[in-house]
Amino acid sequence: MTTPHERELTTGVQIPLVGFGTFLIPDDQAALAVENALATGYRHVDTAEVYENERGVGEGLRRGMQQAGLKRDDVFITTKLWPLTQERNKTSHETVRSLDESLEGLGLEQVDLYLIHATFGREQRLEQWAALAEAYKSGRARAIGVSNFNSSHIDELVEAGLPVPHANQIELHPWSQKPGLVSYLAEKAITPIAYSSLAPLSTWRTAPGHSSGKTQEMRTEGEQSDSPFKKLAQKYGVSEAQFLLGWGVQNGYPVLPKSTNPDRMRQNLDIFSFRIDDADVDYIRGLDRGPGLAWGEVDPTTSA
Length: 304
Known about the structure:
Elements: E1 6-8, E2 14-16, E3 20-21, H1 27-40, E4 44-46, H2 54-68, E5 76-81, H3 92-106, E6 113-116, H4 122-138, E7 144-147, H5 151-159, E8 167-171, H6 179-187, E9 191-195, H7 216-223, H8 228-236, H9 240-250, H10 262-269, H11 278-285
Parallel strand pairs: 3-4, 4-5, 5-6, 6-7, 7-8, 8-9
Antiparallel strand pairs: 1-2
């Protein structure tokens, strides 16, 4: 049985199951990184307003698509609204302006997926989501969604008479499997998109000044030669990173690995040659640790 390379959103748009993440890539390095990613074979690029690298990503898209002979429809592009200004939550008008600025930075007339990045304040969430719904109707976004939302946040949108999101980008990996939320998303036909897929690696997010939320015990565990993910990767003849990404796509989650190393780029894309057997799937289910790590001690999916 083979794993498909794409997943269809409820809009009919196909989202590649392996995307290129750009979090923590500076704007002046993003163009080369995205250009290399497209040359390697990536067809989904994920960025965000708060990453402050949309102009670099846009330049990389232009150069990379030209060199690879790609059309705009060949590449799926995601960006995200940062819902706050320096003083408060963004209004509907400011949300529209943020999308305008993102499109200008990316050099695009339309993104494939536009997300609200996180949850800050109920009334503002509703106002911002209504603005995204209008962006979808106008064709400036082919699909819209949320990120770091839990089921109650999404219920609020639906109860207000607003559309159901097409996707929810959340932290998902064997240490944070969120079975209740994933089940809820399936019931609502909302595609879960996984970020921080490689969190169980001991080397995950070691960039200076960035807290990964991992305890020293977790780091030490990841370094051990008998780490469960290292042993499982050896069983399937793949790297530990490939195994963790493969677990995500086998569950149907688009994943967003980030690397500026060309060899790792290729490895992270090459995850469709193996399939985790049922016994190992059951074993991994027992490794769930509950809340995620990416936001440190604060889990935005449970914030008010």
